[in-house]
Amino acid sequence: MQFIIPRSIFIFCLMVMASLPALAESQKILVKDPIMPKLPEVARTAAIYMTIENTSDSDAEIIGVKTEVAHHTMIHKTVEKDGLAKMEHLDSVIIPAKGTLELKRGSYHIMLMGLDKKKLAKPFSLSLMFANGDPIQVEITPQR
Ligand SMILES: [Cu+2]
């Protein structure tokens, strides 16, 4: 017995494959005002702030951050407990559809740990990794 794939199914599969890159591209993320405040001479950690806007119709989830200037990079949120500011480590953070997430002092931030100070002499790049979609490169110029 011969098994023949109907032509219509074959064409449908081609169409699905062709639409995949478009799907990744439909995740529209805009990063504004990325900053890394001036560090004390002895600092081994640094916080990075920025505003991330999601102009798409679906939530965007950042599941990690990568950079060459630090050994570890984490997403943190500063919370106040019993009058003390504490940093919580988050596995991921959501930027709601048509929404904005502000990374700022006393709130969400990107934490760099085990800094390679030599590499901080000039601008460096940071990759925001998404659950769905391509990484986004952000250029950071350390303040001095
Ligand atoms: Cu932190």
Automatic annotation (TrEMBL):
Residues 1-24 form the signal peptide. Keywords: Signal. It comes from the Bacteria. Pfam families: PCuAC. InterPro entries: LpqE-like, Lxx211020-like, PCuAC_sf. The keyword Signal applies. The keyword Signal applies. Gene3D superfamilies: PCu(A)C copper chaperone. Coiled coil: none annotated. This is Copper chaperone PCu(A)C.
